[in-house]
Amino acid sequence: MEVLNKLKKSYYKPVRENIINFLLSMDEIYYVDEKDYQDAIVLMEQYNYDINYSDCLIILTMYKNGIDTIVSFDDDFNHLNNITRVYIYFNYNMLFHFV
Predict the structure, then answer these.
(1) For residue range 82-91, what is the model confidence (pLDDT) as tens digits?
(2) Which residues, other chains included, contact 7 with Cβ-Cβ below 8 Å and sequence gap of 6+?
């Protein structure tokens, strides 16, 4: 979801469809429930509000489902234990790569 939100930027237009297709081919959808929303508030408090609520909900969902890697433009995920952030960069030909 984090990556998909950034695709509205015009400079992604040439590769937008490729990114979406790639993510959908490797992605599973995990649903959250009411308890998860409440637990995300607790997690946000544990991080002293340095990480925003939606990121805490993502982190909680990752921990709950045994996920340790996220594709995201958000560098807040770089500072978390047990989570690896993979990000997308583009070369001059607008080909995307994951690092």
Answers:
(1) 899 887 665 5
(2) 16, 19, 20
Instruction: Report pLDDT digits (tens) over 39-94.
Output: 999 999 999 999 999 999 999 999 999 999 988 878 888 888 889 988 766 555 55
DSSP per-residue letters across the chain: -HHHHHTTSGGGGGGHHHHHHHHHHH-------HHHHHHHHHHHHHTTT-S-HHHHHHHHHHHHTT--EEE-S-GGGGGSTT-EEE-EEE-TT--EEE-
> To which residue do tokens 């937008």 refer?
16
Q: Using CA atoms, how far apart are residues 8 and 20, in angstroms rounded to an integer? A: 12
